[in-house]
Each structure stands twice: as structure tokens, then as C-alpha cells.
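Proteins fold reproducibly. Look at a sample protein:
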Amino acid sequence: MEDYDIFEPYVFDTLTASSTNSSFGFSQLIGIVLMMLVAGLSSLAGLGGGGPNIVIMIIFFDMLPKTATLVAFANVLGAAFGNVVNQMQRALNN
């Protein structure tokens, strides 16, 4: 009987769905610009903006949905922290 690892089909790169697209290219640049636009517009509207960022990361960065969700949550947390710092500076200056 041949040695067969039952976990072999599930072993792959955890950051991207494919390891062939590992170089930085034009699609990643467009993805970064779109993510900045979504973050700015959602911050103006008072929303998190995580949903559109997940889709952008899956399409332009070839990320798995699980990884894209975690990165989007980190982006939303960073934007919220920046807004808190900005509001604290405004409150202390008045």
C-alpha cells in the first residue's frame, strides 16, 4: 500500500490562493488605490468599509477569503483608531 498523507490536499500557501502570483504588479497597485478610496469614503460616511475591502483583496491580491477578512478587520481597526486620535486632538484643542 502506498503511503498517502490525508492532509496533503489541504496544504497550500495560507496567504494567497496560488503561489504563482507572488510578484507586485499593476493589479496590486490598482487594488491599493481602490482600498484607499473605499477607506476614505467609508470613513466619511461613518462606516467600517470592510466588506468592499475583502472583495478587493480577493480579486486584486489573490487572497483567500479567510485571510482577506482578517486583513480587512485590521484595516477597519486602524481607521477607527485614527479617527479616535483625530477626535481626541480636536477635543483637547478646543
